[in-house]
């Protein structure tokens, strides 16, 4: 069995019993059911298949990419067959994005070969990838807000032809795949789901043979996501290969026929996700056992820490969503979750609660019994509010400042870090070190720049910074956006712990799974309006999903957009 | 025909002429900014165009060659800005300010030997019949070539930006450079070309001043028009037609205040000279109070540095 130790341990499933090695598996925290495999035997296995079958759509051999200070991809092998939906799994920083960027020609490998339909190929740039028949839908959409749908699509095509004809083609394709789109609309008018359709239609117009989807559902409602899956299955049935990247393991189990797992830039395993549990997949990704947070039942609900009444906002920004008569309260000891697709007023609600945007009527935001609508962020913090914004870099932390300076930025209001107008750097450093230790932040000490941390670690730091101030009320936006499973579990645990210790916690998130793990009650924000809250155990993902799509049980508003339903 | 009415023709003519340097510079800057680059060096580029065009025309006697060199000098200044901000990633605001200071000094140095030399000015086009029409004849049909070129550039720039693929790509680069890069567009090359175009247009605007409007060279001949051009672009929400209207407004007030001075009204001439600048800024601020419109038209990546790997 020691042979399996020579290379990186390959975890796989369905291997002849001779390779089973439970002892070694336990030693390496190998999740149960997975086994070590000698890399060479897998290799020969693959080769025997290659001789008689048609060549795979895409094959990567020994792809290596080095960035200053890190090896992003280390001899990665990957085989994609025609018509398969193949998942690429891994934590943040495992090298998934780097790998697909090399397939799409945005980056170039330092070494290794890429075989396209059996022929060795160099993808010079994205245009070259598109010529080969490779399409990509980016995680952060590569769309241009102030251009129309048709203009956006034209930019992604090599010979778009006249705009009228293109608009017609867009209509045809979008009808065929059930992706309703109006080519003449400006992108900033579109919902996130519609924006994604623009990206997908852009790819489909080029008759792709390989479609790369980078975290496509992280911003969709469950209904939108299942519609997307229908489209993807249909494409796969027509012979298109789909390379699917996602953190959402349940989705991968429902959609994908094969999965390749990356960890630390290396391929550590391959499996059929339909045969695995989500937990098993997560443990394969992080390489250790996953501890999921338990949410003890809420005790007697305490005093109302935050009361929002008739909160309405207006904005000069044409991209903003105005809040319309939003009302809710969060009590001591509980977590209230606010669901909703991005762009439905979350940013405006966060700003109105944090004090970044003041509201006309002070009584519409009441913190700890004090009308605070007219108070700025510092005054609200002094009342006991702590706040974790959605954007980690730039809002939650200053990227160029060290961790101790970042700790100071929000800590000074409630921690004794400033004395007589002068910063007490010793205490700021100690405070930062406390956060780093208490929340297992992986960083080079308190001097590390905020931007040098991975997303998950920075988020742990920011949430730790707020929690250690012993807030009476914590408002968090997207606590685990783009954070890997291990860090997400730690963050969830910390939030639940804070609530159970008597604080009121408000979580605004697009991730329904997260809200169902965390929240005692859930509301939905849609077009600036907030639904009534429901105890989590009395509702379901489907029901919340419908609310996120706008099916409120409220009378239609003046736009007629909200339908009476349910 | 009363004496006042007889004045309208020449005043209109003078207005179009006074607007021309601004029109060139602002159109060029509009294209530059639409690609996402904020070049505050317009004044410096205009001055370099002015002095080079003047010097070459004096030395060679060829006005077309002078204009060509003026555009080239502006483009070279633009290229310098491009190297510093697009390739070496220097801060665009600071570099633009430096470019203006550099242009002021270098143009004074180059122009040292040319102060006080008279120049004939560009030939006026005379269109038979049309140029002889009363009132508007001289104003609209008796100008020299550059005035027409400036006006013709407005629809051309508009068509380029909003009707051609190259214009679409340029706007896309200014809107979201990371997305444009991910789609495979050469962000830096496109911006470089836009900056050079802006420089060439500023150079022509400056050359019009020194070779035609006041056919002579004097230090700082542009007198802050580069800054007005910059303001014009923003307040015109990057739209060529609005840039033109703003330039005409500036030209109109410039000429009107000259006439007021001529009538001997008892207002200090410095205050009158201030009027065109004041009026332009005031009117443009008033018509651009619509924040939504600015946001919709402003290139989202304006002034942001772009590095392909980040």
Any overview of this molecule?
The complex is a heterodimer of chains A (566) and B (310). Chain A is built from 18 helices and 25 strands. In chain A, the strands form 5 sheets. Chain A has an 8-stranded mixed β-sheet, with helices on both faces. In chain A, strand 16 (365-367) and strand 17 (370-371) form a beta hairpin. Chain A is globular. Mean pLDDT of chain A is 81; it is low at 1-50 and 554-566. Chain B has 310 residues and is an all-alpha fold. The mean pLDDT of chain B is 88. Classes of the chains: A alpha/beta (566), B mainly alpha (310). The A-B interface holds A 105-106, 125-128, 130, 138, 140-147, 151, 154-156, 160, 188, 316-319 and B 165, 168-169, 171-172, 175-176, 178-185, 291-292, 295-297, 300. Chain B: Keywords: Cell membrane, Membrane, Transmembrane, Transmembrane helix. Chain B: It is found in: Cell membrane.
Radius of gyration of chain B: 20 Å
Order of helices and strands of chain B: HHHHHHHHHHHHH
Q: What's the mean pLDDT score of chain B?
A: 88
Q: What would CATH call the architecture of chain B?
A: Orthogonal Bundle
Q: What's the gyration radius of chain A in Å?
A: 25 Å
Strand order in the sheet with the most strands of chain A: 2-1-12-11-5-10-9-8
- The CATH topology annotation of chain B reads as ABC transporter involved in vitamin B12 uptake, BtuC
């Amino acid at each position: 069995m020691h042979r399996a130790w020579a290379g990186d341990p390959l975890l796989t499933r369905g291997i002849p019993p001779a390779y089973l090695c439970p002892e070694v598996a336990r030693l390496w925290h190998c999740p149960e059911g997975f086994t070590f495999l000698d890399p060479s035997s897998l290799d020969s296995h693959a080769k025997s298949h290659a001789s008689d079958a048609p060549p795979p759509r895409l094959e990567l051999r020994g792809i290596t990419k080095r960035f200053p200070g890190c090896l992003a991809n280390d001899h990665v092998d990957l085989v994609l067959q025609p018509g398969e939906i193949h998942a690429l799994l891994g934590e943040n920083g495992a090298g998934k994005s780097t790998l697909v960027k090399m397939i799409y020609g945005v980056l170039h490998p330092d070494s290794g070969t890429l075989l396209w339909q059996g022929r060795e190929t160099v993808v010079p740039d994205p245009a070259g990838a598109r010529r080969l028949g490779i399409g990509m839908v980016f995680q952060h959409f590569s769309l241009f807000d102030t251009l129309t749908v048709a203009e956006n699509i034209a930019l992604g095509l090599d010979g778009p032809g006249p705009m009228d004809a293109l608009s017609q083609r867009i209509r045809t394709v979008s009808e065929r795949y059930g992706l309703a789109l109006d080519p003449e609309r400006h992108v900033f008018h579109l919902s996130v789901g519609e924006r994604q359709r623009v990206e997908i239609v852009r790819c489909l117009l080029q008759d792709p043979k390989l479609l790369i989807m980078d975290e496509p559902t992280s911003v969709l409602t469950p209904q939108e996501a299942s519609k997307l899956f229908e489209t993807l299955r249909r494409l796969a049935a027509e012979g298109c290969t789909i390379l699917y990247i996602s953190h959402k393991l349940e989705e991968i189990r429902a959609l994908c026929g094969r999965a390749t797992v990356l960890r630390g830039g290396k391929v550590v395993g391959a499996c059929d996700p339909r045969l695995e549990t989500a937990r098993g997949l997560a443990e394969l990704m992080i390489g250790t056992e996953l501890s999921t947070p338990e949410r003890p039942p809420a005790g007697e609900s305490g005093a109302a820490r935050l009361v929002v009444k008739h909160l309405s906002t207006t904005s000069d920004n044409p991209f903003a969503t105005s809040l319309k008569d939003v009302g809710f309260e969060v009590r001591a000891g509980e977590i209230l979750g606010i669901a909703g697709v991005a762009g439905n007023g979350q940013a405006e609600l966060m700003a109105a609660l944090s004090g970044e945007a003041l509201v006309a009527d002070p009584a519409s935001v009441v913190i700890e019994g004090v009308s605070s609508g007219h108070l700025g962020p510092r005054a609200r913090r002094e009342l006991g509010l702590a706040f974790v914004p959605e954007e980690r870099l730039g809002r939650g932390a200053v990227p160029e400042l060290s961790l101790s300076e970042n700790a100071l930025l929000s800590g000074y209001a409630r921690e004794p870090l400033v004395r007589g107008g002068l910063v007490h750097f010793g205490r700021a450093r100690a405070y930062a070190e406390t956060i780093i230790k208490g929340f297992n932040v992986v960083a080079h000490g308190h001097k590390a720049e905020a931007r040098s941390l991975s997303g998950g670690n920075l988020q742990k730091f920011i949430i730790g910074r707020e929690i250690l101030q012993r807030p009476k009320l914590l408002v968090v936006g997207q606590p685990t956006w783009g954070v890997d499973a291990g860090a997400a579990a730690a963050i969830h645990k910390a939030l639940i712990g804070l609530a159970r210790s008597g604080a009121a916690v408000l979580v605004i998130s697009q991730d329904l799974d997260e809200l169902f793990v965390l929240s005692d009650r859930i509301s939905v924000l849609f077009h600036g309006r907030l639904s009534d809250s429901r105890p989590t155990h009395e509702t379901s993902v489907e029901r919340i999903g419908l609310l996120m799509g706008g099916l409120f049980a409220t009378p239609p508003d003046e736009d007629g957009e909200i339908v009476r339903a349910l | 025909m009363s004496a006042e009415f007889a004045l309208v023709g020449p005043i209109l003519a003078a207005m179009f002429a006074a607007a021309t340097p601004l029109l060139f510079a602002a159109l060029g800057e509009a294209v530059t900014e639409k690609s996402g680059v904020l070049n505050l060096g317009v004044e410096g580029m205009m001055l370099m165009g002015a002095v080079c065009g003047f010097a070459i025309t004096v030395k060679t006697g060829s006005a077309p060659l002078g204009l060509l060199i003026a555009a080239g000098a502006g483009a070279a200044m633009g290229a310098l800005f491009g190297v510093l901000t697009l390739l070496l990633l220097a801060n665009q605001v600071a570099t633009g300010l430096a470019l203006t200071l550099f242009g002021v000094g270098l143009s004074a140095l180059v122009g040292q030997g040319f102060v006080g030399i008279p120049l004939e000015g560009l030939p006026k086009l005379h269109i038979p019949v049309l140029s002889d029409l009363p009132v508007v004849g001289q104003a609209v049909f008796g100008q020299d070539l550059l005035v027409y070129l400036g006006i013709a550039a407005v629809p051309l720039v508009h068509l380029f930006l909003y009707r051609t693929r190259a214009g679409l790509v340029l706007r896309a680069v200014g809107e979201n450079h990371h997305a444009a890069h991910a789609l495979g567009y050469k962000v830096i090359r496109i911006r470089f070309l836009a900056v050079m175009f802006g420089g060439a247009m500023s150079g022509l605007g400056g050359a019009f001043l020194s070779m035609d409007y006041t056919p002579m060279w004097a230090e700082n001949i542009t007198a802050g028009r580069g800054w007005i051009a910059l303001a014009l672009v923003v307040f015109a929400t990057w739209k060529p037609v609005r840039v033109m209207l703003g330039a005409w407004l500036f030209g109109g007030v410039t000429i009107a205040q000259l006439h007021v001075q001529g009538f001997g009204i008892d207002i200090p001439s410095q205050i009158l000279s201030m009027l065109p600048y004041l009026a332009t800024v005031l009117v443009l601020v008033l018509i651009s109070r619509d924040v939504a419109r600015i946001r919709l038209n402003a290139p989202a990546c304006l002034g942001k540095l772009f590095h392909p790997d980040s």
